[in-house]
Write a structure and sequence with these properties.
Blueprint lengths: L7 E5 L5 H13 L4 E5 L6 H11 L6 E7 L4 H8 L4 E6 L7 H8 L8 E2 L5 H13 L3 H31 L3
Parallel strand pairs: 1-2, 1-3, 3-4, 4-5
Helix pairs in contact: 1-5, 2-3, 5-6
The chain binds 5-O-phosphono-beta-D-ribofuranose (RP5).
5-O-phosphono-beta-D-ribofuranose (RP5) binds next to strand 3.
Length: about 170
């Protein structure tokens, strides 16, 4: 983790969310983003969650990624206490397969928006955070463009392989 001023805060409701959240951290690191990571529960440590969100801006945080499962209130609580944009990751951590988390995060009341990625969509949370930062960071924007080009060329490589398979199998 970078020791300089942090731009992205990654918070999760429980240590049990980490396996999913790790995918987000890996992308932030790949892009050279400055980030900090914390376990902080809207229910088990509500005062800490509120304080963390309230002080995010003064600590140089420009976007918050909040992951939570079950009754996933952490992203909404973060958004309630800060004007820093919040991206929620609904975690598939319950008998309801993450649908509970998704609905808890996405159904925010008017006035307190939370951007919500797919269930367990940690990679997209990182990429969206980077895109938010790239509004004022040309270098980062170029990196994101390069990333998208690589995605496209990956699909083309798959197409070449697919054609070979179809040819081999006479299909
Ligand atoms: C949520 O409850 C957490 O974000 C986690 O996804 C879920 C289960 O937490 P543990 O009981 O595994 O700590 O608050």
């Amino acid at each position: 983790m970078s020791t300089s001023a942090k731009k992205v805060a990654v918070v999760m409701g429980s240590h049990s969310d980490f396996d999913v959240v790790k995918k987000c951290i890996i992308i932030l690191k790949e892009f050279g983003a400055e980030y900090e990571v914390l376990i902080c529960s809207a229910h088990r440590t509500p005062d800490k969650a509120a304080e963390y969100a309230k002080t995010a801006e003064e600590r140089g945080i420009e976007v918050i990624i909040a992951a939570a499962g079950k009754a996933a209130h952490l992203p909404g609580v973060m958004a309630a206490y800060t004007s820093v944009p919040v991206i929620g990751i609904p975690i598939k951590s319950s008998a309801l397969d993450g649908l509970d988390s998704l609905l808890s995060i996405v159904q925010m009341p008017s006035g307190i928006p939370v951007a919500c990625v797919a269930i367990d969509g940690a990679e997209n949370a990182a990429l969206l955070a980077l895109q938010i930062l790239s509004v004022s960071n040309r270098e980062l924007r170029e990196k994101i463009k390069e990333y998208k080009k690589k995605l496209a060329s990956g699909v083309e490589e798959k197409n070449i392989k697919l054609k070979e398979i179809l040819h081999k199998e006479g299909l």
